[in-house]
Design goal:
This protein has about 220 residues and is of the alpha+beta class. The protein has a domain at about 25-120 and about 190-220: Nucleic acid-binding proteins (OB fold (Dihydrolipoamide Acetyltransferase, E2P), Beta Barrel). The protein is built from five helices and seven strands, in the order H-E-H-E-E-E-E-H-H-H-E-E. The protein has a five-stranded mixed β-barrel. Strand 3 (about 55-60) and strand 4 form a beta hairpin.
């Protein structure tokens, strides 16, 4: 009878630690239990902030008897919300990478350089394989530009010869170009290139990594 009571207490304790995620969000254990399936994918994970490691990272866990954890890395130029403290429950949307010991950090640095650290991996677009095709494309483009320039000059000469003033267009402002996410961070501050790697190698070498490009991808969950 005593053994039965003990088993009942253990079962109730386990049930008490079970927390259901918000609709559409995964739990940390879903990722850590089969992390290879999620490598390179953008996911939304819900969990508790177990530890605020520094201004660029924190541990996301589930609590309970077994506590799977992800190390969330902040690749933005923004600081974490002041409310992001140990015990806060949040959802985090980011890209999953292998642990440091599995080469995940090298993959992140490669992605940071190309501006894709917090974005899902994409297949490269098809490119011409033969140099002859490239040369032909360049020749056609240059020839087309020259023809357009010649026609514009001839048209202007005809207008001047006819005594008509040439209409001039005001110079339009240059269109802004998109700035890729680089080592300076999505928000213009310091990105992951300045992250102290010793934290990964010594403290969290086996933790699966989750990279976010904006602190707006970290949302607080109201616990009722």
């Amino acid at each position: 009878m005593r053994t039965l009571r003990i088993l009942l207490i253990v079962c109730l304790s386990l049930l008490a630690t079970v927390v259901l995620a918000q609709d559409g969000a995964l739990l940390v254990g879903d990722i850590t239990g089969d992390s290879a399936t999620y490598y390179g994918q953008t996911v939304t994970v819900e969990g508790n902030v177990d530890e605020l490691v520094n201004i660029r990272s924190f541990l996301l866990g589930e609590g309970g008897l077994t506590n799977p954890q992800l190390l969330v890395l902040n690749n933005s130029g923004q600081e974490f919300n002041i409310g992001l403290t140990a015990g806060a429950r949040v959802t985090v949307t980011g890209v999953v990478y292998p642990s440091y010991s599995e080469g995940g950090w090298d993959q992140i640095m490669s992605a940071v350089t190309s501006g894709q650290a917090g974005q899902p991996q994409q297949q490269p677009m098809d490119q011409p394989q033969q140099s002859g095709e490239v040369e032909q494309m360049v020749t056609e483009a240059v020839g087309g530009a020259q023809n357009m320039a010649t026609e514009a000059v001839e048209g202007a000469e005809d207008m001047i010869g006819a005594g008509e003033p040439m209409a001039t267009e005001p110079m339009s402002e240059a269109m802004p170009t998109e700035v890729p996410v680089t080592g300076t961070g999505a928000g213009g501050g310091v990105g992951l290139q300045e992250y102290p790697v010793v934290i990964l190698s010594e403290r969290f070498p086996e933790h699966t990594l989750l990279v976010v490009n904006s602190v707006e991808d970290i949302r607080f969950v109201q616990v009722e």
